[in-house]
Every structure is written in structure tokens, then in C-alpha cells.
Write a structure and sequence with these properties.
By secondary structure, the chain is an all-alpha fold. The protein has 2 domains: 5-163 and 234-260, no CATH class; 168-217, no CATH class. Helices cover 62% and strands 0% of the residues. α1 (5-11) packs across α9, α5 packs antiparallel against α7 and α5 packs across α8 (135-148). The chain is globular, with a radius of gyration of 19 Å. It starts with a helix and ends in a 16-residue tail after the last helix. The model has no long low-confidence stretch (mean pLDDT 89).
Length: 272
């Protein structure tokens, strides 16, 4: 296993009970940085991005002397390449994949998202020699990333994937409808994972085969397409849809994340 999985494995950021909380903190960052005006000086998105930069610095300082961290082989924890991968995975890649779910982003929309995440990355310390500026460049960037580092699913990677997916299972004391709905949610998430990763990577990650649930994301195509058509054709619909989704994100984080805010704190001790 290579970057960026090794830091997650050693810090335990996505294992056990902490997995869902760490995921929610990432959602908090996405939400904070995409609110209107959030990236201006003093904005909540700018603040969250800088806090994550500090967190990354602490993690690097902690992991570099670790006996399992071979700097000659792995480089610096949370490297420039690792951050580049994350920024592309947060912009160009989902922008293109959303088309398969009925969304209709134009190339200009995807480029705007790439530009946004480039600035977020800048605040986090990302200093690229080159960054894609067009949708075509985005495909080139994904190809470069694929050629630069071949996926290596070792035991730690498998454990990370399983730990995260297990957060969607119902609690052990759940009974009746609560247990049934929890199991259905877990199967649906496995289906979304296979849709995102593809069958080959899904199998390599050690996740169970979701069966027909692999087609679950396709159930969203028709409502998404209808909403996207309304967004493009009906005056005022785009603003209403944006407001509704931003409100839903805030309510979700307030319900599931303690106090609705992310702490962005490093772990007290490493897993090994």
C-alpha cells in the first residue's frame, strides 16, 4: 500500500468508530468551502481549509519518524501528488461521473469546480507545477495520476474500506424495522461503491459483492434529469434547488456531527 492510504492506516482516521466521524468532517470541509462567499478572507471555508492545512502539517511531523514510513519509497506524508489526486477526485472526476446519474454539468461547470478546488488546495499548501485548466486537461490529469501510482490493495487498504462501509451497518442492538432499514442502507452503499470504483477495484478492496444493488445509483437518473432540466429551463429554479440542497447539507451535518462543526484534530496516538 502506498500514499495516500498509509497515513490513514497509521493514524486510524478511517478505522473503527472514528471512520464515520472523519467522513463527516470531510463533508464539513466540502460544505464550508462551497458556501457563497466562504472563501473570502474571514470566510468559514477559508478557515476550514487553513485548519486542515495545520492538521496535515501535524500528521507529517508525526509520521515521518515512524519506522513504517520509508521516506525514500513513500516520500512525504500527504504529498503534493496525494493532494493533487484529492483535488482532481473532488472536481473533474465527479463532474464527469455525475453525467451517468442524470446530472447535466457543462464543461464550464466542471472547469469552475476544478478552479475552486485549486484555490482550496492552494490554502492547504498545494503548489503544483501544472494544473488542468480545461475539461480536456482534466482527463489528462486523471491519466497522469493513473500512470504515476498503480493501486496497491494491501491488508491496510482492505481494512480501511471495510471499516468505512461498516459504519452504514445498523447498530448491534437494532431490531425490527430499524435493523432492516440499516441493512438496506448498507447494501445500497455497497452498490454505490461498486458504481464508483468499478467491479475490479471493488473486488480488490475486499468489499462484498452487492449483487443487484450495484444498479441502485441508476434509480436516481430520472429524478436527477428532471431536476437538471428544470434548473436549466425554468427561471428561478436553479436558485431554489441550490438553496434546498445547501440547507439539506447543513441539517445533515448538524444532526450527525457533534455540534455540527468539525474539530480537525489529529489522533491522540497512532494505531501502531
Amino acid at each position: 500500500m502506498r500514499q495516500p492510504d498509509r497515513p490513514l492506516a497509521l493514524t486510524g482516521a478511517y478505522t473503527g468508530n472514528s471512520a464515520f466521524t472523519r467522513f463527516l468532517e470531510t463533508c464539513r470541509l466540502w460544505t464550508d468551502t462551497t458556501e457563497p462567499g466562504a472563501m473570502r478572507p474571514g470566510g468559514v471555508g477559508r478557515r476550514s481549509a487553513v485548519m486542515v492545512r495545520v492538521l496535515h502539517s501535524i500528521i507529517r511531523h508525526t509520521l515521518l519518524p515512524h519506522p513504517e514510513w520509508d521516506r525514500a519509497d513513500l516520500g512525504v506524508p500527504i504529498s503534493q501528488l496525494g493532494m493533487f489526486q484529492t483535488l482532481i477526485a473532488s472536481s473533474h472526476f465527479p463532474g464527469q461521473q455525475l453525467k451517468a446519474l442524470g446530472y447535466r454539468p457543462a464543461d464550464e461547470d466542471i472547469v469552475a469546480m476544478m478552479h475552486h478546488w485549486r484555490y482550496v488546495g492552494h490554502l492547504m499548501g498545494f503548489e503544483p507545477p501544472w494544473y488542468p485548466e480545461t475539461a480536456t486537461d482534466g482527463f489528462r490529469a486523471q491519466l497522469l495520476i493513473a500512470l504515476a501510482e498503480e493501486p496497491d490493495f494491501g491488508p491496510d487498504s482492505v481494512e480501511l474500506c471495510r471499516s468505512f462501509m461498516n459504519t452504514y451497518l445498523p447498530p448491534k442492538d437494532a431490531r425490527g424495522l430499524r435493523r432492516v432499514s440499516g441493512n438496506l442502507r448498507h447494501q445500497a452503499q455497497l452498490g454505490h461503491a461498486m458504481f464508483y470504483l468499478g467491479p475490479e477495484l471493488h473486488k480488490a478492496s475486499g468489499l462484498p459483492d452487492p449483487g443487484l444493488w450495484r444498479y441502485a445509483p441508476l434509480a436516481r437518473v430520472v429524478p436527477n434529469l428532471a431536476r437538471e432540466t428544470a434548473r436549466r429551463k425554468i427561471p428561478g429554479a436553479a436558485g431554489w434547488i441550490d438553496h434546498a440542497h445547501r440547507t439539506a447539507r447543513q441539517e445533515f451535518l448538524l444532526k450527525n456531527l457533534e455540534g455540527g462543526e468539525a474539530k480537525f484534530q489529529p489522533v491522540d496516538k497512532l494505531t501502531r
